[in-house]
Specification:
Shape: elongated
Helix content: over 70%
Signal peptide: 1-22
Distance between the termini: 66 Å
Number of strands: 0
Keywords: Signal
Oligomer: single chain
Largest sheet: none
Radius of gyration: 25 Å
Structural class: mainly alpha
Length: 204
């Protein structure tokens, strides 16, 4: 790739990769087009009985904790998760309401924690991308200066060109990953809402 074309390509990748950053000034590191909602509110996903001490007691129940691990795992298909909820509550007998509260409290805790972890990771990557974009811009300027120098050091031009190609590739690959991961918090929201609805329906 010719040096001028490489420089233009590198800058184009950086510009397109940083232009879509969320406009909300409260969250300057948030890289997704989806609005950042720091936490899911309990009222938004649960209209069942008050959870009371279930919010702390669910961890003490080994059976509930194991089920929550399974239900909250993204590798568990939502249909299977909903079926497991129904089977668990159907076998709860007189403890059905108590178990339902424990189950939802654990899901709310676990999925909110997952969601927060993903969001923190996205913001870390966003900061790295901003640093990488600055470096690509600086290296592009240096590469153009090396090309215009007299006499021209071809070895340095080639080394800088290869470095810029590598930096641009990493930047672009990371941008693609971010675009994919930006869907994860929404998927977690949907899972929590869906499972919460099933638990409430089983109590009706």
């Amino acid at each position: 790739m010719k040096v001028r074309a490489l420089a233009i390509t590198a800058l184009a990748v950086v510009v397109s990769g940083t232009a879509a950053r969320a406009a909300d000034p409260r969250y300057p590191d948030w890289p997704c087009t989806q609005a950042k909602v720091p936490e899911i509110s309990l009222a938004a996903v649960w209209a069942g009985p008050a959870l009371d001490d279930a919010e702390t007691r669910w961890k003490d129940d080994a059976k509930v904790s194991a089920l929550i691990s399974k239900l909250s795992a993204r590798k568990t298909p939502l249909d299977d998760a909903e079926k497991s909820v129904k089977e668990f509550l159907a076998g709860s007998g007189s403890d059905k309401t108590g178990n339902a509260k424990l189950l939802f409290a654990g899901l709310f805790d676990t999925l909110n924690a997952q969601r927060s972890q993903v969001m923190r990771g996205l913001e870390r990557v966003s900061r790295k991308q901003r640093e990488a974009a600055d470096k690509i811009r600086d290296d592009t300027v240096q590469l153009q200066a090396l090309q215009d120098a007299t006499p021209r050091d071809e070895a340095k031009v080639e080394a800088f060109s290869n470095q810029l190609i590598w930096e641009t590739r990493i930047f672009e690959d990371r941008r693609k990953v971010v675009r994919f991961v930006c869907e994860v918090p929404t998927a977690i929201d949907q899972r929590l809402f869906a499972l919460g609805r099933v638990i409430q329906q089983e109590l009706e």
